[in-house]
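can u pls check wat happens w/ iron/sulfur cluster
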Amino acid sequence: MRERNGRVNLKNLTIDELESFVVSLGEKPFRAGQLARWLYGRKARSFEEMTDLARSFREKLMEKSRISFLQPAEVKASPDGTKKYRFLLTDGEAVESVLLPEKDHFTLCLSTQAGCALGCKFCLTGTRGLARNLDPSEIIDQVIGVQATLLAEEKLTNLVLMGMGEPLHNFDNVVRALKVIRSPAGLHFSHRRVTLSTAGIIPEMEEISSRHHFIKLAISLNASTDEQRSALMPINRKYPLNDLLAACRRIPLSNREKITFEYVLIRGLNDSEEDAHRLAKLLKGIRAKVNLIPFNEHSQSPFKRPEDIAVQKFRQILMARRFTTMVRQSKGSDIMAACGQLGGKVKTEGFEKIK
Ligand code: SF4
């Protein structure tokens, strides 16, 4: 992980590691709780603010550690209420997060990598390849950076790891970030409100769901045959549909929990009634919820959005087979913030500067 001048970035540490770090400075373990409250409760950006910590402790912290913060460099707002934030990282890379307004709360879509190596054909992020993995602090700081722009009555309660990158290709850093995001001493998000979306990296999917019971899984499926899926998502050649769905069947689920399957509908490619019937057959025996996402057209893709009638028919076929099926309204497509539209542009025109 990138450390500057040998100083530890405190947000790269889990809460347990923060305690060990504090002890290594010769302080009592309970001081870690105080420090975490400043970092994640009050969102402190400097040690000077931590006025209830002894000056000697603050001096040691200043010498040995640092506090990162990601100020949104730019933000673009859609009339539908969606906002896309661009964060510039210390090495010049940029990542984007998308804030989605819901009825009574907000959901934030987070990035876990700068770029992505998987190259899914419907995804703009995939066209630029992988630059690098994000550190835990760079994932956590997207949440804190967006929270800092919200009004007191605007509640950010839900997180989806569905922005730029394949989260399970950055496994260790994502798990560390999630530990802090979930911890009562950290950002304290409910485990029921944090979803990780994967293209289906089977070994890591199994590991995260067996060892870390703090995450809801969503699988980016997008096809009803291997031929279709391999053409859209090259990762399918390594982890084909039958293996992926067999792995989904093995995932331990709590009482009413379901696995979400994301399905980007593309006109003439995977949106037929036969596709819907095949999908229902594939998902048989899995406690599944299906999110249908009509493709968001953009200038850099030849794919077309499906007809509304095809979307409705597809949904009806799945509903008739008793799968909870939602059509995800395409929010933020006018500002390239919708699903599959992040991170393709390096240039930043069109954004509004945040002071
Ligand atoms: S859809 Fe997700 S996994 Fe596929 S290229 Fe885009 S960011 Fe990567």
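The chain has two domains: 8-66, 72-353.
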